[in-house]
């Protein structure tokens, strides 16, 4: 018999076995989706986390309750072990919410719906009253200079760009005003800053979020106002540029609190030393229950284990559910996790984060060290015809804030990418509650993550 | 010079011009999306339609108001002409909403949240009180027979299949109970039917929708109960199979009302006789404002003209916005439109319908006469790399109820396919209001339709 005959037989057998494999993988993925949609408790966990525990800002008493609760859930799922990694956090604490008033005359004031930004100092409830100068970006401050800014309240009013289809890109293009506005404006003698809330929606809901002071620069209060309030203030300034605005609030920062990364580890049967991380961050802002940000990511990550257990699927690689401490106000948990992984010489082959809301999943974006990235990306891309029926695709891009410190240790990093349209309707607001989460959309996110992890587990990276 | 040289030149020129064309198309589509996201009034129109006018069941006074309003909007957009096509409809009218009670004892009753199904007769407010037999499908009736059914209330309790990712498939697999339940059960002597609401969500919201009587079969009342009420009734029947249920309601049908398809026609500059239809249905159920079903489809269709006008784009083919009469309760408008198109010898090259909610668009499904369908589908598929960046794909499948009567006249039919997870949270309920619609998601649907129509207009079908 000729060599050709054997080659042909080999190709036929290979094709047959590849097709059979694909069919079997498709069957498993279907089962993952069905299990997620009909048997997962993710929505129940999320209800407890966001409504019974509630807002859980790093360092707060609630943040400890959330740690205890999720560790208990992980234990109940039958992971091999659960453990904690200690992180030191500062508890920034909203003692009295901000009040901002526009003075139409000395005796007539209009209140602007507002919220203090994370880490901001307070006014000790005393009113700071000053003229306002509106700007649309950090770079305008230098042009205006101290003459125009000193003694005034700087009002950052550049909206998120509504033209961008992906609302995260619009957020990325506007959020520097919130994060660095106070520090930059203080350099020119501003007495406080007001920041337009980070949302495409025109409503009267204020959005908090982190703001950062810098060493050697005067700390001034930093407050967000709703988009409707921002429009009103801006319009008023056109006709009455000398209008006075008063603002007050009261906050404190309690240093050196303890928080923990909560980790559930399920040992792989064949490659126990090769670790796949799936996670979200356990902390949330204090205004609501952090249902989308990032309670959803936490419960979806726990649901990956739940789904596999219900299916009696035993992973070959070690799966670690990691619920990271303090993403919102310092990224301490993600950094600590990466540091310990390095010190312990652990081998992470992949990490997946869900931190973009519990909405219908549309895909994953992948990131990694440039050295082998293209080859790894190509390999993973080839699997995605199996996820196409579920509307889940793969693209290159960022992954997640908590897992990105792992990047230089070589794993392929993935971010779950849900539909982004509604995220910034709720993000960091008093509305980020369980009612804003659709149970099926949440479960589909768990299913997408479990499916990707199943494929990584089957074929390695 | 050789023939090869010319061939090579030709290929280079062709490639260059194709790439330039693709770039130019991509630029136009980007502009369509930006215009939709920042300049469209679709959300304002929808607010008026769903909240100021409100529910607009065929034949009702509100249905006439909706016709006048949308024709006025179409005229204001600068179409060449707007006109109406008369349709005769019956106005089924909910005079008094249903009340359904479970009698735990003669004096202790528990109310089950309910709503009368469309077209059902009423009880003239008198209570029908009977035992209940629970079934999970029409086919169970024959097995049970008259002995088990006569004199009883038949309770159809097969849920939508939560395992199915696309909720429209789950709806399609359960809705026969609502549509044909009363007629089938009456054949075996049932006195009324209760139907589990058509939704995957477990809540206390009742879902109405059409039910159909058949000639020669006794008409019995047909009432939907919420999924929570259905679970409660089912559980109660396990322990107390002989429990009595009482139901009452009052409805009337006013025959021979006038409704109209509302049509805005914008003549094409090069192929005025080749028509592209874009539409939705103007009628809605009466319990709420029909914001998703199908106010969204109507305003998105009008927005296609609005967007092109704002971009100064003059279509080569004639675009017709068609707001169809009475989809919900008889499909009269769609049938009338197709009939007149045939009588007038019109040439429809494509029709696009949006009737799956104003959620984030994920694609289109395409349908058509089998003769040239594959070739046409292939041609259109090739354009969709231009829509990939917007998460919009093409698949084969159904199009829309109102445009499908056009099918045998040869046009390619498209249905807009938004994300389906939330649709049946609101469908035919008191909750289908403007608050359930996200403005950006709505506008993205308009943009997807305008983009597809732009490509059809450029390249024909």
Automatic annotation (TrEMBL), chains A, B:
Cellular component GO terms, alphabetical: extracellular region; lysosome
Pfam short name (any one): Peptidase_M28
InterPro entries (alphabetical): CPQ, Peptidase_M28
Coiled coil: none
Signal peptide: 1-20
Cellular compartments annotated: Endoplasmic reticulum; Golgi apparatus; Lysosome; Secreted
Example GO biological process: proteolysis
Main subcellular localisation: endoplasmic reticulum
Domain Peptidase M28 span(s) in chain numbering: 261-445
UniProtKB keywords: Carboxypeptidase, Endoplasmic reticulum, Glycoprotein, Golgi apparatus, Hydrolase, Lysosome, Metal-binding, Metalloprotease, Protease, Secreted, Signal, Zinc, Zymogen
Any one GO molecular-function label of the UniProt entry: metal ion binding
PANTHER family on file: CARBOXYPEPTIDASE Q (PTHR12053:SF3), PROTEASE FAMILY M28 PLASMA GLUTAMATE CARBOXYPEPTIDASE-RELATED (PTHR12053)
Quaternary assembly: Homodimer. The monomeric form is inactive while the homodimer is active.
UniProt name for this protein: Carboxypeptidase Q
């Amino acid at each position: 018999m000729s060599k050709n005959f054997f080659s042909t037989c080999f190709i036929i057998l290979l094709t047959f076995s590849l097709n059979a494999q694909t069919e079997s993988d498709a069957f498993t993925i279907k089962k993952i989706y069905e299990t997620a949609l009909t048997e997962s408790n993710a929505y129940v966990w999320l209800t407890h986390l966001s409504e019974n525990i509630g807002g859980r800002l790093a360092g707060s008493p609630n943040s400890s309750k959330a740690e205890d609760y999720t560790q208990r859930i992980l234990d109940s799922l039958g992971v091999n072990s659960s453990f904690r990694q200690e992180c030191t956090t500062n508890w920034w604490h909203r003692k009295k919410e901000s009040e901002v008033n526009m003075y139409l005359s000395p005796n007539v004031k209009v209140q602007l719906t507002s919220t203090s930004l994370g880490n901001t100092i307070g006014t000790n409830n005393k009113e700071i009253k000053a003229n306002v100068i509106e700007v649309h970006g950090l770079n305008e401050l230098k042009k205006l200079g101290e003459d125009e800014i000193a003694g005034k309240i700087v009002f950052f009013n550049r909206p998120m760009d509504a033209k961008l289809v992906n609302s995260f890109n619009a957020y990325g293009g506007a959020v520097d005003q919130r994060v660095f506005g106070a520090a930059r404006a203080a350099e020119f003698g501003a007495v406080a800053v007001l920041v337009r809330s980070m949302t495409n929606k025109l409503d009267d809901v204020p959005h908090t979020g982190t703001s950062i002071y810098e060493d050697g620069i005067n700390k001034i209060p930093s407050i967000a106002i709703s988009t409707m309030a921002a429009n009103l203030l801006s319009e008023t300034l056109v006709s009455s540029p000398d209008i006075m605005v008063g603002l007050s609030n009261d906050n404190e920062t309690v240093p050196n609190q303890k928080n923990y990364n909560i980790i559930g580890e399920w040992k792989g049967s064949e490659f126990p030393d090769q670790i796949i991380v799936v996670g979200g961050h356990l902390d949330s802002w204090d205004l609501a229950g952090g249902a989308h940000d990032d309670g959803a990511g936490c419960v979806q990550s726990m649901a990956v284990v739940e789904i596999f257990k219900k299916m009696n699927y035993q992973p070959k690689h070690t799966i670690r559910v990691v619920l990271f401490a303090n993403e919102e106000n310092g990224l301490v948990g993600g950094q600590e996790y990466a540091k310990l992984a390095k010190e312990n010489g652990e081998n992470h082959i992949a990490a997946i984060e869900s931190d973009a809301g519990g909405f219908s999943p549309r895909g994953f974006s992948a990131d990694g060290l440039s050295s082998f990235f293209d080859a790894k990306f190509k390999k993973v891309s080839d699997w995605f015809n199996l996820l196409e029926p579920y509307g889940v695709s793969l693209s290159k891009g960022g992954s997640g804030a908590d897992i990105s410190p792992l990047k230089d240790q070589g794993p392929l990093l993935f971010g779950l990418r849900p539909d982004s349209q509604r995220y910034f309707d709720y993000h960091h607001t008093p509305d980020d509650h369980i009612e804003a989460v659709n149970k099926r959309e949440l479960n589909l996110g768990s299913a997408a993550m479990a499916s990707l992890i199943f494929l990584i587990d089957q074929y390695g990276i």
